Amino acid sequence: MKRLLRFVSFICVCVDCLLVSALAQLILCRASAHTRGRVLARITQTWARTLLWLLGLQIESQLHTNIVPDTNYLLVANHQSYLDIIIIAAHFPTQFVAKHEVSRWPLLGWLAALGGTIFVERESTHSSVRCVYRVSRALRAGLSVQVFPEGTTSDGTRVLPFKPLLLAAAVRSQTPVLPLTINFTSVNGEAVNDETRDLLCWHGEMDFVQHFWRLLALREATAQFTAHAPIAATRTDSVTALTEHVQTQIAADFVIAAAHERTLTWHVTTTTNAPIAPKTSNSPIA
């Protein structure tokens, strides 16, 4: 009964967001791309925060103190599940890059399109290059854009190699990159293990509807969300070097959390954007 109630509530929240987004598009049809994008991103943020509460997903957020509010970034994260999108959107007003197939999904595809999602055909070089130009324009307009350079979801045990193409948008627009690490840590009060990890991670040939239906049955789950120090990007930077540095930073924090070795002296806040003291880094790129 609780699962069915959650499902109905999910549909209602999505329909409400769809209607509000459509109305905002009409009202702001003559507004600048920056204004329209920021309003739509805020609507998506409200939708995401509501879903976190509805799904019982608690987030332990750790945001670096160098992150400047209302500054736009190219957000870069590891990717394990559709839940990553909800977690990131709940923290940062942003547009997303998604595979073109998502645009054809009922309800969620419509929401993504109205929210300003940039769709890309992953097997098409022309579409990928065009996507980089669209991301660059959005960044130049002062909007944040979220990308998942792995190009697909992992099984939650590692970070897959990053593809550098989308990070070229940060170099072209000279927009700072904000590395993000997402770790799923517990399910129903127990630490995530090999048996429960797939209740949160969605990967491979998993069916979305079946996976989401099982997710609705969970009592609660916890994820750690870390926003690292922003990394400056200029036209003289090597996209390959930038990509490698971002992946190293994200993967290192993922491995630490997965091994339950996270430093206990960090200040952890639950489902808030409160800043913490910056972490030290041995990276040659600051």
How is this structure best summarized?
With about 290 residues, the chain is α/β, with parallel strands linked by helices.
SSE arrangement:
Elements: H1 2-27, H2 33-55, E1 57-64, E2 74-77, H3 83-91, E3 95-99, H4 108-114, E4 118-120, H5 125-140, E5 145-147, H6 168-173, E6 177-187, E7 190-191, H7 208-215, E8 221-227, H8 239-258, E9 269-270, E10 275-276
Parallel strand pairs: 1-8, 1-10, 2-5, 2-6, 3-4, 3-5
Antiparallel strand pairs: 1-9, 6-7, 6-8
Along the chain, the helix and strand elements come as HHEEHEHEHEHEEHEHEE
Strand content range: 15-25%
Number of separate strands: 10
Instruction: Classify the helix fraction into a percent range.
Output: 40-55%
Number of helices: 8
Overall shape: globular
Secondary-structure class: alpha/beta
Mean pLDDT: 88
Major sheet attributes: 10 strands, mixed
Query: Rg from C-alpha positions?
Result: 18 Å
Cα(first) to Cα(last) distance is: 51 Å
Instruction: Flag low-confidence runs.
Output: 260-286
Task: Describe this structure as you would to a colleague.
The protein has 286 residues and is an alpha/beta fold. The model is unreliable at 260-286 (pLDDT under 50). Helices cover 40% and strands 16% of the residues. It contains eight helices and ten strands. Strand 3, helix 4 (108-114) and strand 4 form a beta-alpha-beta unit. Strands 1, 2, 3, 4, 5, 6, 7, 8, 9 and 10 form a ten-stranded mixed sheet that branches. The radius of gyration is 18 Å and the shape is globular. Helix 1 (2-27) runs parallel beside helix 4 and helix 2 (33-55) crosses helix 3.
